[in-house]
Amino acid sequence: MFEAAEIGHKMDKAAYAAEIPALREALLEAQWALHADGRFPVIVLIAGVDGAGKGETVNTLNEWMDPRHIRTIAFDGSSDEEAERPRMWRYWRELPRKGQIGIFFGSWYTDPIVDRVWGKTGKKALALEIERINHFERMLADEGALILKFWFHLDKQSQRKRLEKIDADPVMSWQVTRADWQQFKRYDRYYAVAEHTLRLTSAGHAPWIVVEGRDARYRQYTVGSVLLAAIRKHLEQRPMPASGVALPELPADGRNVLNQMKLGRKLGDRKYAHELAQLQGELNQLARSKKFRERSVICAFEGMDAAGKGGAIRRVTAALDARQYRIIPIAAPTDEERAQPYLWRFWRHLPRRGRFTLYDRSWYGRVLVERVEGFCQPADWQRAYAEINQFEQELVDAGGILCKFWLQVSQDEQLRRFREREETRFKHFKITEQDWRNREKWPHYELAAAEMIERTSTAIGPWTLVEAEDKNWARVKVLRTLVERIEVALDRS
Amino acid sequence: MFEAAEIGHKMDKAAYAAEIPALREALLEAQWALHADGRFPVIVLIAGVDGAGKGETVNTLNEWMDPRHIRTIAFDGSSDEEAERPRMWRYWRELPRKGQIGIFFGSWYTDPIVDRVWGKTGKKALALEIERINHFERMLADEGALILKFWFHLDKQSQRKRLEKIDADPVMSWQVTRADWQQFKRYDRYYAVAEHTLRLTSAGHAPWIVVEGRDARYRQYTVGSVLLAAIRKHLEQRPMPASGVALPELPADGRNVLNQMKLGRKLGDRKYAHELAQLQGELNQLARSKKFRERSVICAFEGMDAAGKGGAIRRVTAALDARQYRIIPIAAPTDEERAQPYLWRFWRHLPRRGRFTLYDRSWYGRVLVERVEGFCQPADWQRAYAEINQFEQELVDAGGILCKFWLQVSQDEQLRRFREREETRFKHFKITEQDWRNREKWPHYELAAAEMIERTSTAIGPWTLVEAEDKNWARVKVLRTLVERIEVALDRS
């Protein structure tokens, strides 16, 4: 991969002077068009060896274009707010909005490569990170992002010279630290790990562009012209997402996990009161335990309208200290959320350690309401299953305890509850025209939910199907499941 | 203030049982009405002595109402992201949205009171904090927020008993730490400081409600019923902001700071090139200096349309490492921003230490475009002067270096630049119908700007008036001012 960037590429002064004014003008125009278009963000990664002009290139791009619509984000050590969440959280929170250019100086590649070079991680860990990165970039591209990854390369000899030169310059020498020289000693190993990583993460939708870093004019012109061509082309294309394999709409026999549930399950009031108190006590103890300070709980509540999600959530939170949890009710996204990839609005609320986030409706909206109501393309919800599984894997890998509840009621019971809501003074806020319209689409929702459960009930994130015809039964089942899952997780840690 | 909360208030079980169901129902209904109304947030502060049932009350409120529309925020130590910004930043970022209830467990009162009790701060520092808090709450109230501040009180004897009781309970004893007992030893001093602080911060728009904490039923019922009555009343009132004193629209002689500027100032190209390079070099050095790591720079760029704000900003950023600055272009607020007090969208982008935030248009929009175009009520922009001065005081108190630039061009020059933008291919994005419409209101904008400068050019945040008819002159003046202000600030630190 790097051979082509060791052949002494350069651009002479005259050619550069001739090309740059037009390039700058065109870049500025492309940038404004991108901003006006507003359909996708541009994500530019700047990576590579030290001394190859990464920082200078970032500054040049900011100078050439309108810096007001560029976000340059440098990643040093994690803040404590970042360190307590999944590793990718800090990148998610900095993603540029649609219409913006985000320049990532340091990125999700830095740690995996550096850790491997220094032997902090093994081959398998790197392989896993590479897989994760590929999923992430695939998702970004599917959401419309234009991704360009620039790798600045220098052959060994040139890097030594470059570091020596900077080191000797009194104005520049601060840029070269002892760590840089330490790093240089590992040049060969760095070369090998980087080559391996780049090879396995170079994709049509997120290509690596290796740039020889010896000549400033050459590397600046290269980056600028690649960026220009890519933005122009991406603006021309109306993204046409490819649909997944077409599957028949129903299982042949009409049976699915939901319509086979035994909804008749019940719990008498006395037994309910006893079990509720017992389980709430246990949950309270677990949430206050020392081990829990290193973990977090993420719950997704889904289910048919009026299945009792809110009531179940309140029985959970009643056992917790209010300072320890947040409930995130999911309604229509805000415009800041709409300007980001679909999962962004869930990432932003992930809990710190020792905390609970309870999502009242969740990231599964993509394959439920958005699918049924046609709010997204078939290709979008079809790819969502894999994206969601990946998301949940990251939660669990970071110590999150994940619980997903599907609350099911019969159509008759739903009708009864809708009517009750209409008639009860302080419940009439809870029923809208939309609820009645959704009800008419019951078979579609049931089909979507059944398929969702089939495709996303995994070892790390199993769905708990909750018979919710009887509220007592449902609430106790939710609490018991939660207590058991936390117990198991804490026992293992 | 506390005497009335030492008389043994209580509520017997029967009365409580009789009242609570209706209270809960009414609270739930008020909460839904608040949510549907969406015009204002409810901010509930829970403060007071340890052992008086603060935590329990927070949990009870969450249990009684719909916890999905409550945000409970507890404040422990600051995260590093918080510690590097003005003290109020952590409260701003957690403010509930309009239609939401935010319960603050621990608040902007905690540190000022505790620090004074332990002698970490003197009388004057407390007085300053109190003044700051009053400004902040006044601003919140003026923005429509309903503010209720509950102080849970226990007389000395009762607090001792309460702490002993909790300490002896094996399940509860974790709640009482050594620090709590240490705190108790200072009961009298705490009493005095708290009484002083409450007295000076109890306002009609943000009242303190002192609640005797001995009886759980009494305190829960009190908080619940106060909250209910306050929400109901606030919902009924269509807020009718009182206008400030009516002032005549123009100075008698028509002279103002802007139309008296000498716009003929110029700088030749050679001199410009020389000075620009010199100043950019100085700025670069300053930004990389060790002392600057503890400071930050906040710049506001305002001016007539086409006065050259963007160009001036780019001459500043060209001197900086792109990782070190962010430019925030201010356009229409997002809906998340609209659901917050006016200044929230500026608070959210404040830089960490060692960084620059450059606002391309700023918080002064309130007294410029919003005033002229009638986007807000007269009362809103009239109070904004004081709010802005307060905001800037906080920036500077936290080590921020604040620079405010007004770029002025003549009407003729603006016309020339508008036409140039229309004719130049890569500049036509920069001119819209709106710009032409604004131009027609030139006298109104000039009047508003002149009044703004008069009222907000302060010792800590002076306005720099920049003659921008000649771009060379303007850019050099901006850079020179910035360099000088940073130099002065670093010399002093």
Give a structural overview.
The structure is a homodimer of 493-residue chains. In chain A, strands 2-3-1-4-5 form a five-stranded parallel sheet, with helices on both faces. In chain A, 37% of the residues are buried. Chain A is α/β, with parallel strands linked by helices and 493 residues long. Chain A has 20 helices and ten strands. Chain A has helices spanning 13-37, 54-64, 80-83, 89-92, 110-117, 123-142, 156-168, 178-185, 187-201, 216-236, 269-288, 309-317, 335-338, 344-347, 369-372, 378-397, 411-423, 433-440, 442-456, 471-492, and strands at 42-48, 70-74, 101-105, 146-153, 208-212, 296-303, 325-329, 356-360, 400-408, 463-467. The mean pLDDT of chain A is 91. Helix content of chain A is 50%, strand content 13%. Chain A is elongated and about 85 Å long. The first copy, chain A, folds into two domains: 3-236, P-loop containing nucleotide triphosphate hydrolases (Rossmann fold, 3-Layer(aba) Sandwich); 269-492, Rossmann fold (3-Layer(aba) Sandwich). Chains A and B meet through helix 1, helix 2, strand 2, helix 12 and strand 7 of A and helix 1, helix 2, strand 2, helix 12 and strand 7 of B.
